[in-house]
Amino acid sequence: MKKLIFFLIINLIINLLSPTLFALETLHCTHQELCKMVNQIALENKITDLKTATLVTVSGDPHEFEPSSQEIKNLISANFLLTGPNELNPWIKKINFQRSKLPNLKTISLTFDKTDFSFYPMASGEVLSHFWLYPKIYCSLKSKLETQLVSNGFKIKKMANCDPYTAEKNLQNVLYLVKTPIILTHDALLPLMQSLLSTQKNPISIIAIKGSGHHEETPPLSIKKMYDALNNPKVIWVIEEGINVPQNILNKIRPNDQVIRIDTAQTKEADPFSVMSELASKLK
Fold it and tell me: Is 252 helix (H, G, I), strand (E, B) or coil?
């Protein structure tokens, strides 16, 4: 009897100390695309006991979003939290500070480094924080997340496949065929499209009406560039769902202009570059 009790105690201690204990917890995220990235990693590694949940629902531009008081409480108290770059959720800094006072909580924070900025030199941190629109940034953050998950006890293959080039090349091939200016609702896609056209002679003009700064308004320079583009007999408007643009600007859309409507705020499950694929398809 004593041997049985001793064995049960030892087995309990081993289970408590085992790193796989973390896999039984729910990994909460500050953005739905972060949870999708975790789910993608779990799918690639055939992990069935890694669960995710998004604590806030961000629709439209994440830079326009502010969490409610209840959401803030949930973010501070979550046992295991995954946060993206500070530029994605500017309000996360204060939450991470509060969490740092609670030693029993675990936090994975994905951040940008110099290499990330070198991929798209014209892009700010606010723009790159739309990481699901930038394949090289997505793959970089995914690699960092895999490393962090390994350090937290999950059995992750650090060098999982992540191909940023095919999606970019497909969009680039389509952009090469476009002969009219493109007006974007805001600049989340601007540096990506400019980088894809950087090797082309006399590339088309691409204008963004709004920036990606937190609660940023439409700057006068963007209005001027829009009017310059409208000197052409036809332009392509890329209207992004959830991005607020003044109606007087949308009234500038002419009958012969082409209008593309697309949701840049979220991807389709298991396809991290679905927004780019959809944009390329509609631009054709």
Answer: coil
